[in-house]
Description:
The protein is mostly helical and 282 residues long.
Amino acid sequence: MGRNTEKIMQGVFWLAACTSILAVALICVFLFVNGLPAMWDIGIFDFLFGRIWRPLNNIFGIFPMILGSIYVTAGAVILGVPIGILTALFMANYCPPRLYRILKPIIELLAGIPSVVYGFFGLVVLVPWVRNTFGGNGTSILTASMLLGIMILPTIIEVSESALRAVPKAYYEGGLALGATHERTIFFVTLPAARSGILAAIVLGVGRAIGETMAVIMVAGNQARMPAGILKGIRTMTANVVIEMGYAYGLHREALIATAVLLFVFILIINLSFSLLKRRAS
């Protein structure tokens, strides 16, 4: 009876694993079967490096959206990574236990807030602030970068704190034994020892930022044109798919799926980078 139960459970586990693999495989097949022919029809060079996206004239240049995704992601990394790493350092080395018990759930709550709520916050708070402080209409690369910088904070803080806590205590004690101060030991011994885990946190944050859709749509302006400055509107690849998929058909629809293929490749590269960093850290 026990052996039969074990075999049944092994079959259940095997079936669950195969379901996950099958789901990924079906998504890959759907994307590449429907997206790659559109790239050939449009022309791979014209699709990837074309500067004009005008579906009514069958012109599908995705380059402005690629730059839009890169710009807002880079802005989010510039704004979010220093704050996230410094917060992780504080939580791992300086935070009093009472404050830690308050701060930790707040960061976990930040990770669970739906992206549409972030977008609403950006629309009501950040857009008017950017408009009144820097000029423009407020919906811009800068606003989207600020919002994404906030959204990637929980990922960077959680993973970086775990990496810092995983550094053996002997490293810290050795630094103190050599005469270094508490701060010098943390910044020049503990932090470099945790760099692989911190790099993995940054890679995960980049993945979160480049794949974000709803919040970006609400604050980025959604203008399918070449970026003209950080106070001008932009459209990302994810926003391009969501905004136009509802009414697209024919080659236009296939071009949007090809955009999703490109986004899939970006995410795949990010995940592979994370796996390599994780293997290196272990």
